[in-house]
Amino acid sequence: MRARRRGSGRHAGRSRHAWVALAAPVISGALSVALAALDPAPSDLQFILSQAQKVQEEDMAAWRRYRFRRRAERQEIGESGEVVRREVLEFQVTPRDDGFDEELLFLDGREPRAGEKERYRDLGSFARHYRTMLSGVGHEEVEGGYSLALLLRLSSYRYAGLEDRQGVACYRLDFFPDEARPKERGVAWKVVSAMKGSLWIAREGFHVAAARAETVRPIPLALSLAKVHEVQVSVECGPVGEGVWLPRRIEMRTRARILFKPFHRRNLYAYSDFLLR
Asked: What are phi and psi of 54, to 5 degrees?
C-alpha cells in the first residue's frame, strides 16, 4: 500500500552556503498504552506514518526541556576528495523561555576568542533549526532546510519488513519520489521530491531510529543559476529519557554548483549529554 501526504516548504538560499539541507528528523516520544499495544499489519503504512507524525509533534515540544551538547563540523571537500577546509564548533545548548542559549565552548579545539562567543550566540543556528522543525518551513541554515515531517508527507512508501537497528526492533519503510504528485513550489519540495531512501521506525513507540536518504537526480535551483547534483543524508536517533527520542548523529553530504563554481561539502552534527532542565 502506498501512503501519500501533501505538504510544502519554502527555502531561501545564500550564495556562500549550501542550498540544500535535510533537517535532522526528530520523530520520537511516547504513545498511549492503547496505541503501543497495537501491532499494525505489515501493509498498514498509513497507520505507521500517522503515528510517526503524531510522535514527532510530541518530541518537538519535549526537546525544549533538555540541556545538551552540540558538535557541528563542516568540511569543504576538494576535487580529489581531500578535506581543504574544516571547522568544528562545540556548544552547550540550554533552553530558556524565549528559545535556546547557545554557548560556544570550543572552536577548532581551542577556547573562543573575545567576541566569538557572543557572535555565535547571536547567530542562534540551533534555535532557527528548531523553529524549522516545529513549523515544517525551511530556511537557509544547513541543518534545517526542511524536516523529515515534510518527507513523510511528500514521498511514497512501501513496507520492507522488520529489521533491528542497534538492538531496536523496527519497521523498515523504503521511500521514493512520488512522480504522480502535482508539482509544488519551494526548494524543500524540489529536493524531497527527488529523494529515495529508508526509515527505520521503532515498533514500540513509533520513534524513528534511523534514516538514510539520497537524491536520485540533479535538482536545478534559482532559475538554473544553481544546481544540486547530489545530497546524501544519514540520521541516527536514540532515547534521551522520559520516553523521548532525539537525534544523536546527523551526516550530510552535498555536491552542488552555484553560478559556475562547484562545491562539495560534508556536515556532521552530534548531540549528547542530554539533561532535563
From this structure: -65, -45
